[in-house]
């Protein structure tokens, strides 16, 4: 699978810490100074940028994301994969009841949980994201 976005991430040299789930304060691993938070427009691709609040050492040693910001970046990467048609997907047969189309949501995706509704977010005239 072709994915140049991860190469870009390596260039940015982000690091993640296990204790950084919702951290509001982080200290540099090299000089132990309190890191400042800077807002960065991170380009995921030429079409998508994501605004990230990044922890940055004032001496330039480290740049880090907390878990929430890393999740935001992850979603932008997924969105980019969907837009560039490199995302893994499920094919399902559509049924028709006269007015609407029906499809089955694979149980591999619902992980045994019961859901009574989904949210459909249209992307294009023939593309949408579904959330449950
Ligand atoms: Zn430092």
Task: Write up what this structure looks like.
The protein is of the alpha+beta class and 132 residues long. It folds into two domains: 79 residues, Ubiquitin-like (UB roll) (Roll), CATH 3.10.20; 37 residues, no CATH class. 22% of the residues lie in helices and 25% in strands. It is built from three helices and seven strands. The longest helix is centred in the middle third of the chain and has 17 residues. The structure holds zinc ion. The site of zinc ion (ZN) has 8 residues, from loops.
Compact description:
Helices cover about 20% and strands about 25% of the residues. It has helices spanning about 5-10, 65-85, 105-110; strands at about 35-45, 50-55, 65, 95, 100, 120-125, 125-130. The relative contact order is 0.14.
Helix content: 10-25%
Low-confidence segments, given as residue ranges, are 1-11
Question: How many domains make up the coordinates?
Answer: 2
Biggest β-sheet description: 3 strands, antiparallel
The CATH class label of the largest domain is: Alpha Beta
Give the strand order of the largest sheet, numbering strands 1, 2, ... along the chain: 1-2-3
Work out the oligomeric state of the chains in this entry.
Answer: single chain
Query: What ligands are attached or bound here?
Result: zinc ion
**Average of per-residue pLDDT values:** 82
Instruction: Write the element-wise H/E pattern from the N-terminal end onward.
Output: HEEEHEEHEE
Question: Could you tell me how far the N terminus lies from the C terminus, measured between alpha carbons in angstroms?
Answer: 27 Å
- What is the rounded Rg? 19 Å
Number of strands: 7
Under CATH, the topology of the largest domain can be stated as Ubiquitin-like (UB roll)
Overall 3D shape: elongated
Portion of residues in beta strands equals 25-35%
Number of helices: 3
- Derived structural class: alpha+beta
CATH architecture classification name of the largest domain: Roll
């Amino acid at each position: 699978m072709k994915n140049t976005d991860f190469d870009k991430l390596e260039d940015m040299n982000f690091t993640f810490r296990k204790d950084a789930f919702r951290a509001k304060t982080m200290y540099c691993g090299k000089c132990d100074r309190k890191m400042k938070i800077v807002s960065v427009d991170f380009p995921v691709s030429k079409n998508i940028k994501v605004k990230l609040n990044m922890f940055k050492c004032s001496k330039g040693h480290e740049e880090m994301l907390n878990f929430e910001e890393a999740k935001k970046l992850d979603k932008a990467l997924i969105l980019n994969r969907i837009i560039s048609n490199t995302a893994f997907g499920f094919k399902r047969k559509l049924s028709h009841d006269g007015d609407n189309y029906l499809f089955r949501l694979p149980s591999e995706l619902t992980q045994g949980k019961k859901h009574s509704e989904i949210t459909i977010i249209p992307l294009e005239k023939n593309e949408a994201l579904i959330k449950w």
